[in-house]
């Protein structure tokens, strides 16, 4: 894997060491990040991913010293280390360097890595229901794409891998369907696309918002509302959206085999057409 990281005004190759044992982020997880893709010469919604990482930093009480536009300029500079149509992952990060337990984070640092990462399989993945839930907004900074949320997603994923699935569906604190461990969730029933309405317990993904808009513009009915566990079990199609896998079909949910269905195909075609015009 080739990787380049921007830190303190220069680009370093490989995996430079940036945290020490005294760094606040290392022992208190005061780090936010975002992930955007560059592939086939396109960078869909890169501006929105750069804006979100700055917003996530503010949500955690960090002091982001860059504007979204400056983060985007650094990201585009990083793409210059690779060939034009390489499949890349762009990961900006802000973290607290100084500060103590119970106190506000003091010095904030920034780094941005660009590395080559093949596009995930277009075949999709299987999923089952996790016993772990998303945290409520009163107990965690759920409006930030923060590193501290991911060990919970990781243990949900591990739980379902142990049951033979690829990914996990997590419920919100009220027991309604929230999202996958690593992506947002859509289902299709009787020709209508349904996706959980963002309620502050899971990420309102940038790819999710884009797919909702594209489907509606194409005349497809999309409902954003409460989704129950029972509805998911009875869905005609289930698909996932996220910056990494883009739009992926769910091939099996619990005991039900599902194929890539027609509305998933439509969503993927619309997203791909959008992505290739978003240079
Ligand atoms: N939920 C979680 C937990 C995620 O990690 C991601 C990937 N960032 C998403 C949803 C999808 O968000 P986006 O489309 O903004 O990448």
UniProtKB/TrEMBL annotation:
Pathway: Amino-acid biosynthesis; L-isoleucine biosynthesis; L-isoleucine from 2-oxobutanoate: step 4/4; Amino-acid biosynthesis; L-leucine biosynthesis; L-leucine from 3-methyl-2-oxobutanoate: step 4/4; Amino-acid biosynthesis; L-valine biosynthesis; L-valine from pyruvate: step 4/4. It catalyses: L-leucine + 2-oxoglutarate = 4-methyl-2-oxopentanoate + L-glutamate; L-valine + 2-oxoglutarate = 3-methyl-2-oxobutanoate + L-glutamate; L-isoleucine + 2-oxoglutarate = (S)-3-methyl-2-oxopentanoate + L-glutamate. One of its GO terms (biological process) is amino acid biosynthetic process. One of its GO terms (cellular component) is cytosol. It is an enzyme of class 2 (transferase). Acts on leucine, isoleucine and valine. This is Probable branched-chain-amino-acid aminotransferase. The lineage of its organism: Bacteria, Pseudomonadati, Pseudomonadota, Alphaproteobacteria, Rhodospirillales. The gene is ilvE.
